[in-house]
Amino acid sequence: MNSKNLAVIITLTALAVGTNYTLISLPNVKLMDFICFIGGFLFGSLAGALIGVLSWLVYGVLNPYGFVLQVWIATIVSEAIYGVAGGFLRKANINFGGKSLGQIVFLGNIGFLLTLIYDVITNIVYAHVIGQNLLVAMAIGAPYTLLHEVSNALLFGFCFTPLVSSFRVAGVYDIKNIGK
């Protein structure tokens, strides 16, 4: 890994952590997931996964909601999934130049499904740690889980293409350079 890649990973990690603290008053509405996904899309699965892992290494330890080791580990692993998925989407070689409704729905569904996976994993671990029945824990957390999934669906659907397009104009992203 060269110094440019390392600088990008550190910068996106700082952005992810900083936006989480900024949005602390909005439970489960976060930019971190989207930033990890974008990092994976622009710079590959490894970079995206590292952004997710590093973000939760910092945010999880200094989490205003408290620290629980098992939940922290689950969030670290789950956050990395966003970055890996972003890298896989890059390799799919899809043209994200337009703003079609189909593209918005496709990207929104990706955001929703990735967040569903994240929430299921972290809710299972949380229920186990507190000794709560999984169905009861999921029912209690349902409004927050749904808010997380819907906000990410909207963020991925409406913000992905404009952001990637601006990176393309800036020369950061070029579909022809996949894998380089």
Describe the structure in brief.
The chain has helices at 3-22, 32-43, 45-61, 69-91, 101-130, 134-170. The protein is mainly α and 180 residues long. It has one domain (3-177): Arp2/3 complex 21 kDa subunit ARPC3 (Orthogonal Bundle), CATH 1.10.1760.
Topology readout:
Layout: H1 3-22, H2 32-43, H3 45-61, H4 69-91, H5 101-130, H6 134-170
Helix pairs in contact: 1-2, 1-3, 2-3, 2-4, 2-6, 3-4, 4-5, 5-6
Keywords for this entry:
180 residues, mainly alpha, Arp2/3 complex 21 kDa subunit ARPC3, disordered C terminus
Largest sheet: none
Distance between the termini: 12 Å
Mean pLDDT: 90
Low-confidence stretches: 175-180
- Summarize the helix and strand pattern as letters: HHHHHH
Could you tell me the radius of gyration in angstroms? 16 Å
Give me the secondary-structure category.
Answer: mainly alpha
Per CATH, what is the topology?
Answer: Arp2/3 complex 21 kDa subunit ARPC3
Helix content: over 70%
Total of DSSP H or I helical runs spanning 4+ residues:
6
Total individual domains: 1
CATH domain class: Mainly Alpha
Q: How many DSSP-defined strands?
A: 0
What overall form do the CA principal axes indicate? Answer: globular
Share of β-strand residues: under 5%
**CATH-defined architecture:** Orthogonal Bundle
